[in-house]
Request: fold
Amino acid sequence: MSTIKVDFAIIGAGSAGLQLAMAMAKDSYFDDKNIVLFDPDPKTKNDRTWSYWEVGKGEWDDHLLNSWGIANFFSASKMLSIPTSPYRYKTLRSLDFYNQAKAVLRQKENILWIEEGVTKTLELNGHIELQTASENYQCSHCFDSRIDMSFLNEMDGKIRILQHFKGRIVRFKNPVFKTDEFTIMDFRLPWGNTTSFVYVLPKNDFEAMIEYTFFTKDMVEEKVYDEMLDKYIHTYISKEAYEILEEEVGVIPMSNFKFELLNARDLTKIGTAGGWVRGSTGYAFKRTGNYVKKVIENIKGGELPSKGLIKKRYGLFDTLLLDILEKRNHIMPKIFSDIYANNPIDRVFRFLDGESSLWDDLKIMNSVRPWPFLKAIWNQWIIRK
Reply:
């Protein structure tokens, strides 16, 4: 079997892989580079949605499910209605993202999408060898979105929480939603003694994406999501019958695992596998776009693509939140309530995006009840020593 030589290989056509491929397609620096993207999934179905916030018009505004200017937050004891200005909160369906990505990549003869999975990866001196079911490839640098098996080793002392969810796009016969308001977190209907909540993202007066989400160590049976979605909709939205237009399920790892340590000279882990997902919240889409910009800047500057991607100071707060989720899961709704009630929304968004100043970070930390964090510090840095 012959070997096909390329400059860059991207394994996985998810958010990270496609954003990276599109950035290369749009930058003339890569016009003389041969790039291959591997994914066996043709990406013809909507399999997830991504939510993020930004100021002004963004790259994906023409493809959004919707955007909103007022965020509603509900705890067991309070309701906050928060104008998001100068930000807009935006939601993008994956199928719309995939279709736009394909349109961009089709224009570039030097970028090839191979609808196969990579079965073998070998790091050699100065290049990476990849194998699919039908071909061998050699690349100068590989960007890999597959989660390394070392993440599954729970003996390393790292915290592993799962953000798992089921969402529905529902339609009512009568108008029940306010189209410029969305619910960012609603903790009024928890499942047992867990951190569990609901998002509500209206598309128009009649339709919305409604998602029941857990931040827990363990999964639940699918019937739990269905029961809680039905109960929430009939309790807080409307008692009338509704139509389910689409459903989606998902699981996102939330961890303080050091994914970035898996990067090498010729291999860069991207997306969830590279630690690009915020460990304590699961937010990733806009962060991925920012990481991709830095990767492109590094390549053009002759640096390792992974140089300077991860800001270590955010790892501290993430580890503390994850410790609380792991050991005192039931109190996290109060922590989130403190954060949203005691900070302007622009500070919260900057913090969640990893774009906050040290002063912002100190304000966030000073806004929450201290005892859970002091116990988390004890667990992570006193007992473990």
Summary: Residues 3-47+94-154+256-300 form a domain with the FAD/NAD(P)-binding domain fold (CATH 3.50.50.60).
